[in-house]
Amino acid sequence: MHRYIPHTEEEINEMLNEIGVKSLEDLYVGVPKTIDNYNFENGKDEFTLKNEIIKLSQKNKIFKPENIFMGAGIYFHHIPTIVEHLANNQRFVTAYTPYQAEVSQGTLQALFEYQTMMCELTGMEVANSSMYDGATALAEAMLMAVRINNRHKILVSKAINPEYIKVSKTYCTPQNIEIEEISWTDEGTIDLDDLKNKIDADTSAVVVGYPNFFGVIEDLKLIKENLPEKIIFIVVSEPISLALLEPPKTFGADIVVGEGQSLGITPNFGGPGIGFFTTLEKYVRKMPGRIIGETKDIEGKKGYVMILQTREQHIRRAKATSNICSNHALMALYNAIYMATMGPQGLKQVALMSYNAAHYLSKKLEEKGYKRVFSGPFLNEFAFTVNEKYKEKWHELALNDFLGPIPLEFIYPELKNIALACCTEVNTKESINALLKNF
Amino acid sequence: MHRYIPHTEEEINEMLNEIGVKSLEDLYVGVPKTIDNYNFENGKDEFTLKNEIIKLSQKNKIFKPENIFMGAGIYFHHIPTIVEHLANNQRFVTAYTPYQAEVSQGTLQALFEYQTMMCELTGMEVANSSMYDGATALAEAMLMAVRINNRHKILVSKAINPEYIKVSKTYCTPQNIEIEEISWTDEGTIDLDDLKNKIDADTSAVVVGYPNFFGVIEDLKLIKENLPEKIIFIVVSEPISLALLEPPKTFGADIVVGEGQSLGITPNFGGPGIGFFTTLEKYVRKMPGRIIGETKDIEGKKGYVMILQTREQHIRRAKATSNICSNHALMALYNAIYMATMGPQGLKQVALMSYNAAHYLSKKLEEKGYKRVFSGPFLNEFAFTVNEKYKEKWHELALNDFLGPIPLEFIYPELKNIALACCTEVNTKESINALLKNF
Amino acid sequence: MTLFELSKSGRIGYELPNNNIEDFEIEIPEHLLRKKPPKLPELNEVDIVRHYTNLASKNYSVDVDFYPLGSCTMKYNPKFNEKMASIDNFTLIHPYQPVETVQGSLSLMYELKNMLCEITGMDDMTLQPAAGAHGELTGILIAKAYHLSKGDTKRIKAIVPDSAHGTNPASARMAGFEVVEIKSGPDGRVDLNELEKALGDDVAVLMLTNPNTLGLFEKDIDKITEMVHKAGALLYYDGANLNALLGRTRPGDMGFDIVHLNLHKTFSTPHGMGGPGSGPVGVKKHLAKFLPIPEIIKDGDVFKLNYNKPDSIGMVRSFYGNFSVMVRAYVYIKTMGNDGLKKVGHMAVLNANYLRKKVEKIMPIAYPDICMHEFVSTCENLTKETGVKALDIAKRLLDYGVHAPTMYFPLIVHEDFMIEPTETESKDTLDNFAEILKKIFEEARQNPDLVKNAPYNTPVRRLDDVTASRKPIFKFNFKGDK
Amino acid sequence: MTLFELSKSGRIGYELPNNNIEDFEIEIPEHLLRKKPPKLPELNEVDIVRHYTNLASKNYSVDVDFYPLGSCTMKYNPKFNEKMASIDNFTLIHPYQPVETVQGSLSLMYELKNMLCEITGMDDMTLQPAAGAHGELTGILIAKAYHLSKGDTKRIKAIVPDSAHGTNPASARMAGFEVVEIKSGPDGRVDLNELEKALGDDVAVLMLTNPNTLGLFEKDIDKITEMVHKAGALLYYDGANLNALLGRTRPGDMGFDIVHLNLHKTFSTPHGMGGPGSGPVGVKKHLAKFLPIPEIIKDGDVFKLNYNKPDSIGMVRSFYGNFSVMVRAYVYIKTMGNDGLKKVGHMAVLNANYLRKKVEKIMPIAYPDICMHEFVSTCENLTKETGVKALDIAKRLLDYGVHAPTMYFPLIVHEDFMIEPTETESKDTLDNFAEILKKIFEEARQNPDLVKNAPYNTPVRRLDDVTASRKPIFKFNFKGDK
Ligand SMILES: Cc1ncc(COP(=O)(O)O)c(C=O)c1O
Ligand SMILES: Cc1ncc(COP(=O)(O)O)c(C=O)c1O
Known about the structure:
The complex is a heterotetramer, with two copies of chain A (439 residues) and two copies of chain C (482 residues).
Chain A: H1 9-19, H2 46-57, H3 81-87, H4 90-93, H5 105-122, E1 126-127, H6 134-149, E2 153-157, H7 162-172, E3 178-182, H8 192-198, E4 203-210, H9 220-225, E5 232-237, E6 255-259, E7 275-279, E8 291-296, E9 302-307, H10 313-316, H11 329-367, E10 381-385, H12 390-399, E11 406-407, E12 418-422, H13 429-436
Parallel strand pairs in A: 2-3, 2-4, 4-5, 5-6
Antiparallel strand pairs in A: 1-7, 6-7, 8-9, 10-12, 11-12
Chain C: H1 3-6, H2 45-57, H3 79-85, H4 88-91, H5 103-120, E1 124-126, H6 132-149, E2 157-161, H7 167-174, E3 178-182, H8 192-198, E4 203-209, H9 221-230, E5 234-238, H10 251-254, E6 258-260, E7 281-283, E8 295-299, E9 302-306, H11 323-360, E10 375-378, H12 380-386, H13 390-399, E11 406-407, E12 416-419, H14 427-446, H15 448-452, H16 465-470
Helix pairs in contact in C: 3-11, 5-11, 6-7, 11-14
Bound molecules: pyridoxal-5'-phosphate (PLP) (2 copies).
């Protein structure tokens, strides 16, 4: 007997009888028996296991949010209690993809509202209902660009999240799509000369960050002005910053993607977060991923369904726009509840407070003789020079309950003695001052 | 603007207009204004407050369940995850008393099932849907006894939970009901001679514990045999022990009450737990508290409603069987889910494991020269002699992460150098051995 | 289906740890050992999860929509409070732990008590009572103890207005008092003449709810206080309606001697299908010594429990009260703070008056005056005209997805609705409620049977509670039981 | 109502801490500063709580009742797993924290990887992929890298049976392969002749689901393995259906080179309305060097991340995968253990066969053979007879409170239902489902329109998805927008 398996001995016998076999063994006709036992322990009860797992979890160290100065793609923001409270409703959590729309209106409406809000943030016309993460969202954006203009070279700002570039290469190389990186200027923005030089007739798309990985805000207007027609302009953005920044659509972005973790999702050691994916209506049939649309029932009542499924793998198979099937719908719900809770003012306040905190930290560091590496305008992340010992110092900081600015060498081996600092609305003047004592 | 208060300035003005007044002040005609400000701080945001409250909570010390050897009315049992998970459903939590039965079938059925299970455990015919706690349940049982036979003396075994006796006195004295205590024997059971001596024509009820406060199992059969007719036999019981013990009904109990905290409720620093209250059908109209009954709707479909409300204060007012209005319904839900999860086998296993652990501890203590104070059979609690220093030792134990057997002097000033030990199914041989090193 | 019908012999939903302890012989006399196991259900985890998930869906609650249940203050129950109350360091604490290991809990209770004293204008307070009625009993016992302490044994009566909640007379009765009910005046408030007549040297206490259950402020409160005190009696405040006065005035300032609060009303702790609540009782200085034991005291930086109060009425329940409920109220007060609590009171009153104005267009307000946090309206005219009763309208409201107001209380108004919107509801919600009410009145006039047979869209149709009480079924009838 | 319609300008649902930092001048060029705020809703906390509480009630889920969605393994999702996954020390961890501060997470992943290797019979594994399809892509890229590493550039084809899930061909295509679909044999399994024909030195991989999507075990698996390997190709295992084989056999033992798993199927992690899942990929030793970076390694007692794998296909997503999903799967495996997992497989197969026998009495089983964890039945006859289609029956099932099975997949059966009960469902549940199905068939014969117009008892009636795709509405239409 097991608490997750209902069968009593009596029932097992009744069922075997009904099937017309003598034993469970008879159900495995032609199935080789190759194992007797797995080489791990038998099952454990909740009480015992809980103790074990809590002990294991304590080998991780968590930091007070105000003492965390690391971002680099994953952010510690305040998450209102109701976000997790509501998203943990098991009627959301234990539902599958809304194949039966009539009993999935909860899922469908929540995702439709999510799509609407992502469109509002980015200014774009269509959002899908999620991708796995920011990196795969970008990779899929590149594949989509190639589908649109049938060219095979993608130019990527080297100043976007390096993990995104790595993942994009994994996705693009097998399809013979070439990814070329564009260097950055002293301002930390994309090098327009390098970009112009590399653009050619086979250039499908150009990718920039907004803000980029170094927290610098690229001038999308200027970049767009330098792009020949037909080139797909892909912007990788950080959604909270869009409360403060003009939406990419204004500057002619064709596809805006990014990581949505900062919208109400805990860091989770890197996953799950969520990839968001937005574009223009004219491209929608080239778009990967599920889309929820509004419709009516036979009595004229408003409702929601999955739409444009003919793009998808379960119908189109090898000709689908993507292989994505399960996505990150539940995380879209987190995003939606977070955005509904913060509203336009709250989101802007988060962005502004993060801005102020980062600029305060930057000012104080400069006062102490540390230099910012890039001169471009930044929002809540910035790179600054550190000395050789900082790599070790960073570990020491962790012992002192600070998750300090990350040494960039871990990410870009060529960027020695540079650290990337991040502030959000939860860092206080006191915690920043305390951090500064270590510099 | 506040996140818990929706009114915008604009709306406030619209509303004042509609009411036909100029300002909020105008709504307080004749209401003196006696305060401008409360002498505490203005409101705080979630993030800040969460930090503060977590810090405050850390001034409490929690113990590993296996290291807890204190019971005395509140018990640390394993609570399966689904108990809290399901009981925390906010559609239960944020509902009121089921005045509108048609939209409260969740509450009503859950409570009806709870009543059924309490009847099963105690053997009794009717259970109400909860009282505040074991102590008030007993106090109300005494008042009920008086209502039944219109006599005014209650004889209470001194070996029941002393807090219950105190609370009963608070309830009974104002109604001129006398409570007399019956001493215990060397076995730790009620002194039958003392009892017989004290019974007189005005004796309304006799109260014994089963098991009693010292963990000793009273012989209900024998006691009942000594009770003249018409005397109401009240048994205070501990529900988990009833998985192992013959239900009090068998021995002629008229009312069985007790504390239900052990059935799936965390200790909560003593509250909320729940008082359970069961009796015989013939007495039901004298019973306090809400009762849920089964019925049908106008289409013949089964449903549940509150019944026999004419006993209650909102109808009967001064003549009600009790003043109780809000009860502890949500805790009844915890009880119900716990019992449904454990089932008859699980509950019995809990009782047996607790029995074994306590007997193991007792045996080992005896091997070390400690003596049990009472010779009667016990279940999972027992009193044993300690030396003078134990009162301090007990505090030291806490520093060493043990919640040790409680020095009884705190509770019965006359019981010096005696401690009351408790084991449940979560104490292990290892933790008991570790505890024993301190003895 | 009930749990019992879902049950299957041999199925389990639990697994217990192995404590590595050998089986001991059961040394309990045979006749005390259980022969037949209790018929608890035998279920798998998934059965239990589905059962309660589906039951929950059959419940209306504050989280579903508007719940204008008068006198109950069904305000929004913040989830942050729930989260804080569920912190292990609060829930996994035994009440008898060494006092140095429970400083967090004691400190919270101490601070809560002080904040509640400040809010009520009282000097001391107990947090022990588990609900409002329990607080009433506690408070009235204190009044009794007070008179007895002065050797005054003839004060055997408690005065209660006829508009009072049923718990008031019931509590007074439980405290051994004779209850004298006085009729309300034509303005729905205490009739000073009636009061004068009732007062005398045999009266121990006047129990008052202010604003009263009609949502009306007792404008003559100063006079009442004077009269009661002059007669040597005490003034008791039923705090169920305190929400209305937040930020404006305090029972202590009005001269009340004893106050009970409902943390599950004013202070946003959820009602939990009817409990647990918490009913702290505050008193003026001269009554402090009668408060229940133990009291929480601060000794330097250390919090302690003091049981040494010889004049105390004793304990009214085990331990210290419903601590988890206190945590929620504490977090709520901290969240709202001075500025927020003032706003609560104002917006509660604004909402009630706004809705009163809207409802007034549909049916008469029993006492058409500016109200406080709630008001009482009556559909008596409609009942006479169409036969549709308040109960029918209530059931029809359920069909439209809102909860019915309190009905048939206070007893002095007939076919009435006691409507309390609370401050957490928006104008839109109130407008919508008024719209629905209007529609139902139209339905009642056009097609009374439609309303009389309501509800239709609920998990069950109208239930027969008459038979349910006449031939009561108290528990599940297992097959084979007689 | 949508969030946007509930919105009221000026209302708020949040409050942020005060960081005590002065406002800095915004040094961002004017043209890059946002002019018009995004039209996010402005709501009070209670509005949001009610909105999502009510939306949740409109969702069917495993916690509500039976969800026999074939190929999706909708087993019970234990709440204990949820609780463990929500431990702060797991959720509040940044992926770039110093490695000494994340030993708990790394250790869990390392152990999970090893247990999954043991369960699949593979030698090494990556936990990085975020879902099944993502795992497929990862696995196929590994196959590609393998051939290229041997300088074999002509293997441009991937073979996929026509019964395969759509993700198989789609993933192969994304990896740059030409997809060759082979027809299934009359017994619903791989036709060895067809396979033989398709194989050649241009074939890189055969993607197989075993048991396949008809719930049938590929009895000739040894032969298939031999043929594929002989042709120099690799054998890929789509692990969606692994549940059936737990405790019996392992893809590694059958000769598969690459395996992907769905932790959100076999290992009980909830589907979350469609994700997040987790799709670990296991490989045999000779392919280990191609696995994505980083790999988790154990160096003495310390766990580390190794990025130095020159032959790796690279990263398939950021960081290390969906860690929170892994925690759930880890807890599940620990809970079930060796004995429990064996039971899972056996009971899953028992349930499917039992239900197959029951359904057989209602409509034909597409391939009437002993099945594994699921089976496919078809109502084609009924459709011809009455016009009632599989879709109509599916909708009618919703009226009876159970979820519809998977339909119209695999593509090789018409008007079909793919039914997978999983091991967590009881005999009673299966009996009840068969009863309902039978009833619906009777309804279809007696009153086909009744079924064709279903559902009736759901939050909305049948939805028009044709128009929805033809004239798509992608987002809420704010008034004033064009
Ligand atoms: C005016 C009034 N007094 C007292 C009470 C009793 O409070 P409780 O239900 O917490 O015992 C109520 C409860 O509805 C009430 O409305
Ligand atoms: C057989 C099979 N393969 C692959 C997949 C894809 O898995 P996922 O949805 O996790 O990407 C599925 C999902 O339904 C499936 O059933």
